[in-house]
Amino acid sequence: MKKAIKWLLVFVLIVIITAGAGAAYVYNGIQPVKASEEPVKITIEPGTGTTQIAAILKDEGLIKNNFMFVSYLKWKSEGSKFQAGVYEMTPGITFDEIISRLNSGDVVKAEMIRFTIPEGFTVTQMAEKLAEEGFVDKDKFLALAKAPSGIDSELLKEIPESAEFIYRLEGYLFPETYELKKGSNEQDIVNRMIAETANRLSGISDFNQKLEQSGLNLNELMTVASLVEREVVVDSERNVVAGVIYNRIAKNMKLEIDATVQYLLGKPKERLLNSDLRSVDSPYNSYLYNGLPPGPIAAPSLKSIEAALEPKSSDYLFYVTKKDGSGEHLFAHTYAEHLQNIKKSKATAK
Description:
The chain has three domains: 29-104, Endolytic murein transglycosylase (Dna Ligase, domain 1); 112-202, no CATH class; 233-347, no CATH class. The protein has helices at 2-30, 50-59, 66-76, 95-104, 123-132, 138-146, 186-202, 207-214, 218-231, 238-250, 258-265, 274-277, 302-309, 335-347, and strands at residues 40-44, 85-89, 112-116, 177-181, 318-321, 329-332. It has 14 helices and six strands. The termini are far apart. It is mainly alpha-helical.
């Protein structure tokens, strides 16, 4: 009897020791590794399972025991919401902190580039600005604007391929402030900008219906919008000028818009001379050719696109910029009235 009790006590002692050792093993296995101020980057690829994630964490020195981490996940019913990405963690964080980071997708933020394209810029001006800021190669950017190979946009189907175009994507790279991942190339930037144009157009209420009612195709609409953009400073005049453009086309009058000549000259001149107006023989020159230019001459703002889509009805056929610095125009129904407005404008010059 005494011998049996002795063996029972020995067995109980062994169980206690084993349980204690097991508990100590588990406790030690779930404790953080030695703290360090040096962060560690880990990459979790899409579809990576918890066992693989635990192995990555162990190999990178963020946990002591990958089996314990997987067991802890099962005990806590975690792991199903882990998100892929690049993470930065500091040795010494707990299991719960790691789980929280992986659940929330608290990934390392990619370095970004940021640039702004002003309204009314041409693709040449865009290329020069972006090249100066170190984001593109000017020639590569312009080559894409001329022949957009590799550009993935449904909008391209609505932009005709014409030998008369100077740049096929002129007017279709939306003027906006952009943020893209550092290292984005010319193709990435052009794709993002044309996607923004498509997004803005789709955001206009009943856009397709209004375009159909206007009797214009997209290229004609964007061309008118670009003319409005380059001619108008005061927002309230955008739809009035759009109306004048349509009125002159309806009467088979040349548009005679200075901005079309400026576009052809490459670098805008502060003041055009009469000799400049007919100096370049091109279908873009609205002093030489009737109707609209082959395509846009600049990147129109949303306000100009909306003005071209819904012009203000009037009998105006002429306008001249006031010389008082306001940026406003004087509008006229007849050429005689227009000549009077020119005199009035000069009289207010500052």
